[in-house]
């Protein structure tokens, strides 16, 4: 069985971020052999004066493969225990766990996620949807407002076309030029493409930027690149898109 685990609003301005907490939870799931956690994705939600958030209003989500039905309760208890012990003071942590095999309506969950990127939603809306779709949704401190982002983040992860992958690639290697094959071989990146969708491969040469980040597109980890003006022996050199462009995802 595959599940999605999403958390939101676990930090404050002086604490480690929600991404670090997602990594901590996934590590405990792996250590206790409750399943195989996958990569963590960050999903940007609506920034508005009526929405309390720490810095960016983003949720963190990851999938867990190979979960046995009898271990679901253990995973829920692990997540709850972690959030109640580790979330920062003044935060409003929310937890969402989606059992994909029993999810009643994928499209409705995805719609909620997309709506949360441009609208102010309420806890009541989130809880009503969670009950309707058979999703675990719970709050673990403060106002519990993080349940909205946790549910939305799960919907966006399920959609597979939103979010940045947690972590940087090739740290300290700015301006190094690698082939597409080398990048794919040395990372968990599934595909390298232009923003317009063209796919790169083989010996195409790519210059690494200051911060190399991947995004989630079509359910895959994708590195986005753009063409430069330079050529080497008649072959174009590409470069990873800069941080301001990555932030769109």
Question: Can you put this structure into words, describing what you see?
Answer:
The protein has 249 residues and is of the alpha+beta class. It folds into two domains: 3-164, Alpha-Beta Plaits, CATH 3.30.70; 167-246, no CATH class. 30% of the residues lie in helices and 28% in strands. The chain has helices spanning 18-31, 72-86, 106-115, 123-133, 146-159, 180-186, 243-246, and strands at residues 3-8, 36-44, 58-65, 94-99, 136-139, 164-165, 177-179, 191-194, 199-200, 205-207, 215-217, 220-232, 235-240. The strands form two sheets. Strands 7, 8, 9, 10, 11, 12 and 13 form a seven-stranded mixed sheet that branches. It has a six-stranded antiparallel sheet with strand order 5-4-1-3-2-6, with helices on both faces. Strand 12 (220-232) and strand 13 form a beta hairpin. Helix 4 packs across helix 5. The longest helix has 15 residues, at 72-86. The chain is elongated, with a radius of gyration of 19 Å. The mean pLDDT is 91.
Features:
6-stranded antiparallel β-sheet, 2 domains, single chain, alpha+beta, Alpha-Beta Plaits
Mind sketching the topology for me?
Blueprint: E1 3-8, H1 18-31, E2 36-44, E3 58-65, H2 72-86, E4 94-99, H3 106-115, H4 123-133, E5 136-139, H5 146-159, E6 164-165, E7 177-179, H6 180-186, E8 191-194, E9 199-200, E10 205-207, E11 215-217, E12 220-232, E13 235-240, H7 243-246
Parallel strand pairs: 8-12, 10-13
Antiparallel strand pairs: 1-3, 1-4, 2-3, 2-6, 4-5, 7-10, 8-9, 11-12, 12-13
